[in-house]
Prior knowledge:
The chain has 14 helices and 9 strands. By secondary structure, it is an alpha/beta fold. The chain has a 7-stranded mixed beta sheet with strand order 1-2-3-4-5-6-7. Strands 8-9 form a two-stranded antiparallel ribbon.
Amino acid sequence: MFLALLCVAQVQAPPPVDFxxxxxxxxxxxxxxxxxxxxxxxDIRLDLRSEVFxxxxxxxxxxxxDPEESLFLELMKLPADDDDSMPKNEDSLPAEKIALxxxxxxxxxxxxxxxxxxxxxxAKKREMxxxxxxxxxxxxxxxxxxxxxxxxxxxxxLAVDTDAVExxxxxxxxxxxxxxxxxxxxxxxCLTRLNVSRxxxxxxxxxxxxxxxxxxxxxxxxxxxxxGGLAHIAGLxxxxxxxxxxxxxxxxxxxxxxxxxxxxxxxxxxxxxxxAGVERLQKANPELRIDRGGxxxxxxxxxxxxxxxxxxxxxxxxxxxxxxxxxxxxTGRPANPKFVAEHNGKKLAVCCAxxxxxxxxxxxxxxx
Length: 368
């Protein structure tokens, strides 16, 4: 009989949550629009495992094995009319989907690397610029790329079937100033993506980019770039992505962007721009999606609330233990303040419900 019941239990137990089949479709349908490759509200990206579980664990919004501490799930559970709720501008996620995400996190938030590779390959196929340059330009391009690669600067063609090139100086934060921009000379006909985020580049350094007419994506996040720098890139006719997160840009700088009709995505988190400046730019370019953040503040608020709740819980536990015995007199194990018996104004803590039942049967025997 016992074996039969065990077999039934095993049959009825739900299988582990499959990330690719169960979780990834939810993320794609409800999260990636605001937290994917093109936009990362609140500095959160949810399309790649490497972005979710990055080096700084203190900033993880998904905590494997711990749904209660996962801010991602906390935001999902907020009412739809809450300003901090996720997904934004949608009805609340169905309860069964939230339950599935919660179970996935509880099971360890398993996310196979193969899922990342599939997302990256799909993105490359979808966004790959088709670009061909003359042979003499290729020779010069390859020479420039070889020099950059020799210094361990990520630089190269986007794919074998395009001459389009990308360069990433963001990992050279200590050495990358305005001087490194001169190293782009020779890439004018083929540089389509450039990342100088977190570098020491200034407005003057951006003058080099005025001749990079094929540039489509430019990341200037967390640099000292200001309004003057934007004047140098205002003539880039193909630029459709611009990240100004954490820069010194103000409304005066946004004026330089009003004529950039190709611009489609602009990130302005933690800048000094105002509602009026953003409204004016939006009017000049109705197709432009402007992201000023918002989730970062929500996450900080939730983190503070969770920390306060945790502190209050620890304080309450400490208060509960005050004046109680440390060991259970019946077993010698540590006493649990959840199991306390009282008799004639005195309290006795025991280790478990079983011991508590014994004490309550004859409290005078144990409480002295």
